[in-house]
């Protein structure tokens, strides 16, 4: 797609990196991979120390990686749209075929952010999230507004305008100042910042499913494990996703 730049966040996992490279190659898409080495990144480590002393909680390494990809999109690309994903996903086999209509709908709905993947153990309908655009015979996908209680940064699309806004309003230094002013402010987290600002929508059914390769111990809460596990079990189909 000539109007869209693709980015994938990966972290010290060669198996996942190679798998994602293969998926994008199968789809015929060029993707830039950003390897999250925050444990060795001097900038991150300096901010992490300040964050612990002032905000009293850990600086999100995942958010830092997403922010770096968005910075690359804004500063290294002139394309109007960016799609950002993580390295533990399966992608719909018709993804490229569907992209032109998705881009057209993104523009007609005047969206800032569109979730192409997210966490849900059931099919999203207008009973769950407000409908923005109904499916058609030629394009059997709907668009819904989504509330703050829907999670996932598996894959999302940003306009350039929104990407610039995120970098300007939610940079580490500016947000740390806001945390000092109001310690109850929303955490500096990809799920709370990147997907919860601007005119937002999700596509249903989803086009990206997170894999189920993480052990129970990976999750901080049984509910997190259940949500990830149920999403994979109910949404993944080997004949639909690659």
Structural overview:
With 242 residues, the protein is α/β, with parallel strands linked by helices. It has one domain: Alpha-Beta Complex (Spore Coat Polysaccharide Biosynthesis Protein SpsA, Chain A). Helices cover 39% and strands 21% of the residues. The chain is built from eight helices and ten strands. The strands form two sheets. It has an eight-stranded mixed beta sheet with strand order 2-1-3-8-5-9-7-6. It is globular. The protein starts with a strand and ends in a 7-residue tail after the last helix. 34% of the residues are buried.
* Helical proportion, percent range: 25-40%
- Rough shape? globular
Overall pLDDT level: 90
Largest sheet: 8 strands, mixed
Residue runs with pLDDT of under 50 for 5 or more positions: none
Global structural class? alpha/beta
**First and last CA, distance:** 19 Å
Q: Note the beta-strand portion.
A: 15-25%
Helix-strand blueprint:
Blueprint: E1 4-10, H1 14-27, E2 31-35, H2 42-54, H3 61-76, E3 81-86, E4 89-91, H4 95-108, E5 113-119, E6 131-133, E7 142-144, E8 151-159, H5 160-169, H6 172-181, H7 190-193, E9 200-204, E10 208-210, H8 222-235
Helix pairs in contact: 3-5
């Amino acid at each position: 797609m000539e109007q869209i730049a693709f980015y994938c966040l990966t972290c010290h996992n060669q198996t996942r990196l190679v798998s994602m490279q293969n998926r994008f190659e199968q789809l015929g898409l060029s993707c830039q991979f950003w390897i999250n080495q925050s444990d060795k990144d001097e900038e991150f480590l300096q901010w992490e120390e300040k964050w612990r002393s002032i905000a009293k909680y850990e600086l999100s390494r995942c958010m830092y990686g997403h922010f770096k990809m968005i910075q690359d999109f804004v500063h290294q690309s002139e394309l109007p749209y960016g799609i950002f994903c993580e390295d533990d996903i399966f992608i719909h086999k018709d993804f490229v075929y569907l992209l032109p209509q998705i881009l057209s709908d993104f523009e007609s709905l005047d969206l800032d952010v569109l979730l192409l993947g997210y966490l849900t153990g059931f099919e999203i309908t207008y009973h769950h999230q407000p409908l923005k655009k109904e499916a058609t015979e030629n394009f059997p996908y709907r668009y819904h507004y989504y509330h703050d209680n829907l999670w996932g940064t598996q894959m999302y699309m940003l306009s350039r305008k929104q990407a610039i806004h995120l970098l300007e309003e939610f940079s580490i230094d500016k947000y740390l100042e806001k945390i000092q002013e109001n310690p109850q402010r929303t955490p500096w987290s990809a799920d709370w910042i990147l997907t919860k600002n601007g005119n937002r929508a999700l596509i249903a059914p989803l086009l990206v499913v997170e894999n189920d390769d993480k052990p129970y111990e990976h999750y901080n809460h049984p509910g997190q494990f259940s949500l990830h596990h149920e999403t994979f079990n109910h949404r993944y189909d080997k004949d639909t996703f690659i």
